[in-house]
Amino acid sequence: MRHAVRALHSCVLRRLQVQVQLDLPLKASVTPVTRWCRRMFSDEAHATHLDRGEVVARVLDVVKTHPKADPTKVTESASFQDVGLDSLDTVELVMSIEEEFAVAIPDAEADKISSCPEAIEYIASHPSAK
Amino acid sequence: MAASAGEVRHLFRALLREASRFSNYNVREYVKRRAIDAFHQYRDQSDPAVVDAAFKRGLQQLEIARRQSLVYSLYGPRVKSIMDLRSSK
User: Fold this and answer.
1) A95 touches chain B (CB under 8 A)
2) What digits encode the pLDDT tens for the residues A27-56?
3) pLDDT higher for B82 or A84?
4) Is A92 an interface residue toward B (CB < 8 Å)?
5) Whole-number Å distance between alpha carbons of A32 and A39
6) Nearest to A95 among B13, B40, B43 (CB)
7) What is the Cα gyration radius of chain B?
8) Major place of localization (chain A) (predicted)?
9) Number of domains chain B contains
10) Which of B11, B20, B34, B36 to mutate to test binding with chain A, by most A CBs within 10 Å of its CB?
11) Which of A82, A102, A80, A100 is nearest to A91 (CA)?
12) pTM of the entire structure?
């Protein structure tokens, strides 16, 4: 008897959840089942790359706010050495870029990034940069 | 056994990563700042013995940071520091 009540309880809850989804302002003529399937694949849908202009702006911002960088020399094609950074500062800068875009760059890749265009290229082609 | 430039960068990166794992704002900023200062202090050092000793000290400090980040996470404060809130806005 208790099992039946519990089964009924969970059935009712499941139905209630579907009804909440129906209240969302989604495009018309989509059945509840396909809407639910779309929710499950939402991770793949969001794995798009960031807009290039935004990536450029944010990377240059991170470089400019570095204490040792000369902001007047920061351009989209500048190398980090042009801006006034040495190799240790470059490591620190790449870490700041990692924090800005919430990615984890492996050491082998991070050692290769030594200029603005390389950093922009890496972030723009990273699937889960935010 | 001299540490190569790549290994030094690897150690520096490991220390910075470990710093960002601290839950306490003050300790996090201090570890970052101290790591940057310490590596810049030995940047132009050419004597390999001194460089080796500094590298070994760096490895020890990394182990300490690893242990401490764990301990700090166990006894963290309940309220977030104001500096964390400001930087996230």
Assistant:
1) yes
2) 555 555 555 555 555 554 445 677 888 889
3) A84
4) yes
5) 11
6) B13
7) 15
8) mitochondrion
9) 1
10) B36
11) A80
12) 0.71
